[in-house]
Specification:
The protein is α+β, with helices and mostly antiparallel strands and about 550 residues long. The protein contains 6 helices and 26 strands. The protein has a 7-stranded mixed beta sheet, with helices on one face. The radius of gyration is 23 Å and the shape is globular. The two termini are about 40 Å apart.
């Protein structure tokens, strides 16, 4: 029996937002030309508006919650998105979903939000686009797979975990990866050096999902065709017109996201691993905050709010994100895990000395801060991962005494942006919340930090860990200085010998989390770009409340 026949399982969502059409790929993001998905090289088929659609940038999926997912693609012309999804790899049991029309308003990108899927299962999908001018004329299909989030009550499908508790009688293991910082500091796709091969290492681990901790693109870091490395070798970048200057127009922001998908490793990874994406600074420009007016001579549009609006539209068009609601959200992943995805840009106050005493200021804003406290205290998951795209205890300077991040630098009592995190940690502590872990990127090296009130200037919190990993494919830096306010200890650090080392020299990192369905222990591996574990630890499950 078709497992999807008993009820209406799937409903189509809407496409991305409206906007200007792009230019040509390797000539522009919104192409009549496509990209060769084997090599990333451009292809230029004979194009006619009534011809057969071509899918230009692969397929992606996004994590939404138990029994839900987002599936994304892009075509080279106007057409209707069609998605088939089922349990079988051959899709003989699949249900067919008619999605939105892809057109120039969304840069020919589109996505379908699938609801009512089996929870906690590996599903397979096939994507096509049908011509609007010639109904029945469809693109060649592209296929992918994804694993849906399990329900809080336990797993009810084919079991892959271990015996556990809960109403379902069994609890699945959870495995996921995180990193950030893609194609930054002038290091783009270089086939001579293996492309963005870290994504192949992550794909081989078969994670349930990928948390991209910000800097999904580098809109402010143009690429040169060649860069000479310290040892005399030459790094040759694949370059598109949008990557030759800072992004200012909507087309240029779209081109940042289109560029990354020219990498074959990233496309293969995106086709198999659903994503959670955070919006950080380099999606717009370095260390930006709302209301900022740029003095950088590279920009003719100096209003950051204008640039951020264009970036945000491209972000939603080109990534498999849900389009409704704020950027911050909680994704519940069965009884073991809740992931709290923060937005540390939209509500951020100006970068200054970060020594103020005003509790209304900060990175999160009052509404998001109250939301996080409320959802942490309501969570029944064993582990509460807070995805903070800016690290908690590392000092991230912004020149002239200004601070970009949370830490304000003196190690004393909380001040500046530390105040809101002191409030969050204190509220969670008083409510008896356990199992909090912070995951971040941003600083372009990997580290493990343990926070303890016995070492801190503030005592009203429960000890916790923060794990840092990155970059995925960018210049490597660090290490940064730790601020002592919350009592951090750097238990492990792997940083390069000098600033902006290229991906050719290593020091590219990702983190992997494995939550055991039987013991509910939380194991972290900090890995290099080839998947080798540099350091690991296992956190025992906190006592049941």
């Amino acid at each position: 029996m078709n497992p999807f026949d008993r009820r209406t399982l799937l409903r189509a969502g809407l496409a991305g937002g409206a906007g200007l059409a792009g230019g040509a790929l390797l000539g522009g993001a919104g192409a009549a030309a496509g990209a060769d998905l084997a090599s990333g090289r451009p292809i230029t088929p004979a194009w006619h508006p009534t011809g057969r659609p071509v899918l230009t940038h692969g397929v992606q999926s996004g994590v939404v919650g138990p029994g839900e997912a987002v599936v994304w693609t892009r075509a080279d012309r106007v057409g209707r998105l069609i998605v088939e999804v089922g349990r079988r790899p051959d899709l003989r049991d699949a249900r067919r979903v008619r999605g939105p029309v892809l057109d120039s308003r969304g840069d020919f990108t589109g996505k379908v939000r699938l609801r009512g899927l089996p929870a906690g299962e590996r599903l397979h999908y096939r994507v096509r686009v049908e011509s609007l001018h010639r109904p029945g004329l469809v693109s060649e299909p592209l296929t992918g797979s994804l694993r849906t989030a399990p329900r809080a009550g336990g797993h009810h499908g084919p079991h892959r975990g271990r015996p556990g508790g809960g109403p379902g009688g069994r609890v699945d293991d959870v495995r996921f990866v995180w990193t950030g910082d893609i194609a930054g500091q002038g290091w783009g796709i270089s086939e001579d050096f293996g492309g963005m091969r870290i994504f192949e290492a992550m794909r081989r681990g078969r994670p349930d999902f990928f948390l991209c901790s910000g800097d999904t693109v580098y809109a402010d870091n143009p690429l040169a065709e060649t860069v000479t490395l310290p040892d005399g070798r030459v790094w040759r970048n694949l370059v598109t017109p949008e990557k030759t200057k800072v992004a200012e127009t909507l087309t240029e922001f779209r081109g940042q996201f289109a560029y990354n998908l020219l990498d074959a490793h990233l496309r293969a990874f995106a086709a198999e691993v659903p994503q959670l994406n955070q919006w950080d600074d380099h999606e717009v420009t370095n260390n930006w905050y709302p209301g900022e007016i740029l003095t950088d001579p590279r920009y003719t549009e100096t209003r950051v709010d204008v640039l951020a609006a264009r970036s945000r539209q491209a972000f939603h068009e080109w990534l498999p994100t849900p389009d409704d609601g704020p950027l911050y959200r909680v994704v519940r992943y069965g009884p073991l895990l809740d992931v709290f995805v923060l937005d540390m840009r939209t509500y951020k106050d100006p970068n200054d000395g970060n020594t103020y005493a005003d509790p209304r200021r900060g990175l999160l804003g009052t509404q998001q801060r109250q939301w996080l406290i409320r959802e942490l205290t309501r969570s029944t998951a064993t582990w509460k991962v807070i995805a903070n795209d800016l690290p908690l205890g590392l000092i991230v300077p912004d020149g002239g005494g200004a601070q970009e991040g949370i830490a304000q630098g003196d190690g004393g009592a909380p001040a500046g942006r530390e105040l809101e995190f002191a409030e969050i940690l204190g509220a969670a502590h008083r409510a008896g919340v356990t199992g909090i872990v912070f995951l971040t990127a941003d600083v372009h090296y990997t580290a493990a930090h343990h926070y303890d009130p016995a070492r801190a200037a503030v005592a009203d919190f429960t000890p916790f860990w923060e794990f840092v990993s990155g970059p995925a494919h960018a210049g490597a830096f660090g290490p940064n200085t730790l601020d002592g306010t919350f009592g951090p200890e750097a238990v492990f650090v792997n940083a390069p010998p000098r600033a902006n080392t290229s991906p050719a020299e290593g020091f590219q990192h990702y983190g992997e989390v494995f939550v055991d369905g039987g013991s509910r222990a939380f194991t972290v591996h900090l890995r290099d770009r080839d998947g080798r574990s540099l350091w690991s630890t296992t956190l025992p499950a906190p006592p049941a409340g």
